[in-house]
UniProtKB/TrEMBL annotation:
Pfam families in the cross-refs: ABC_tran
Protein known as: Putative ABC transporter ATP-binding protein
PROSITE patterns per UniProt: ABC_TRANSPORTER_1, ABC_TRANSPORTER_2
The keyword ATP-binding appears for this protein: yes
Keyword annotations of the record: ATP-binding, Cell membrane, Membrane, Nucleotide-binding, Translocase, Transport
Location of the ABC transporter domain: 1-226
Length: 361
């Protein structure tokens, strides 16, 4: 499908499908069109081209209320002067269900989200995290085959977001419905998704199982979106008919030179922060100098912010190691295993399936 606003093309060629009872996460950086896609699916916006299907039925021209989609928008969109009960019950009241049925469904959903003790309170009397749960309960209370959740946990602190993500995962399994979950968070897709798709440059780049999405991303867009801290990308040049790849930090030999010989004369190397080490380097590692600018202790791991000859590089190290090393400051020598790197075409963003080993530098 395609959607433009004025001269801005937000969605240019989007094709995405979720299997029945699947939790599909669509990940994307800010301003990539996730909310627009959610609104089109729910019927709140109309695509300029393309169709929307639910259970093989074309619903492009069907009004939002008749699509039978549970929708949790990014904003709470709650009624502040109404009770929690009435906010959750609102979709059921509009559907003119029986009061007894409404009461049973509201209480069941409130219990599942641990907000049943708040039903008599007004929304303006509860916390932000509780409001988030109310918004989710309202979106899920009506029995539907499809639920669309547009970044429902945005803005919450990490621990609350982690707990709500777990609750949503359990809810989806209990309900047995299809969840389409859109997020800009780098960790939620890995915590939640059966499958993960990535929305970038107005297109869906991948739609694969969550484990594959992180361990072997076929596009630079997927690698860039997933994981915290974010992945490092280093520009490098290809030489010797695809036999070597070089950057200012190290040289690499290529095991499949034919693949790179057919590609451009440049590649982008993906290096995950957890693959960069400080000591006890394996024999097959390449080393590079860096200036350690900042250490963030986040508990089990510490994030090292490095300045190198190719710019800023981020590494992740066990906090016990970092705390025990007085020499881990200023000028440091880091290492990375070439076999853990992946190469991407800088134009298409697609992976180049070759493996690396240490070069001659």
């Amino acid at each position: 499908m395609r959607k433009t606003f004025g001269r801005d093309e937000v969605l240019s060629d989007v094709h995405v499908a979720a299997d029945q009872a699947q939790l599909l996460v669509i990940a994307g950086l800010p301003s990539t069109g996730k909310t627009t896609l959610a609104r089109i699916i729910c019927g709140l916006d109309r695509p300029d081209a393309g169709r929307v299907y639910i259970d093989d039925q074309d619903v492009t021209d069907v009004k939002p209320a008749a699509r039978h989609i549970g929708y949790v928008p990014q904003s709470f969109a709650l009624f502040p002067n109404m009770s929690v009960y009435k906010n959750i019950a609102y979709p059921l009241l509009r559907a003119k269900q029986k009061k007894s049925d409404i009461a049973a469904q509201v209480r069941h959903m409130a219990e599942m989200l641990d907000i049943d003790s708040l039903l008599d309170k007004r929304v303006d009397q509860i916390s932000g995290g509780q409001k988030q749960r109310v918004a989710i309960a309202r979106g899920l209370v009506k029995k539907c085959a499809l639920y669309v959740l547009d970044d429902p946990l945005v803005g919450l602190d990490f621990k609350l977001r982690e707990q709500l993500a777990l609750d949503l995962c359990l809810l989806q399994k209990q309900i047995g419905a299809t969840f389409l979950y859109l997020t800009g968070d780098p960790l939620e897709p890995l915590m939640l998704g059966d499958n993960v798709a990535v929305l970038a440059d107005g297109r869906i780049r991948e739609n694969v199982p969550a484990v594959e999405a992180y361990q072997s991303p076929q596009s630079a867009a997927m690698a860039r979106v997933l994981g915290m801290p974010r992945a490092n990308f280093i520009d490098a040049t290809v030489a010797n008919a695809g036999q070597t790849v070089s950057c200012k930090l190290f040289d690499l030999a290529v095991d499949e030179p034919g693949l790179l010989a057919q590609a451009a004369d440049r590649v982008r190397l993906l290096i995950r922060p957890e693959h960069i080490g400080y000591e006890n380097a394996p024999e097959d590692a390449v080393h590079f100098p860096a200036d350690l600018r900042l250490i963030e202790d986040i508990g089990v791991d510490s994030i090292l912010h490095l300045q190198t000859d190719v710019g800023k590089v981020v590494a992740s190290q066990p906090s016990d190691l970092v705390r025990s090393r007085d020499d881990l400051q200023g000028a440091v020598r880091m290492w990375v295993r070439p076999a853990m790197m992946r190469a991407y075409d800088p134009e298409s963003g697609q992976v180049i399936d070759c493996t690396f080993r240490a070069g001659n530098r």
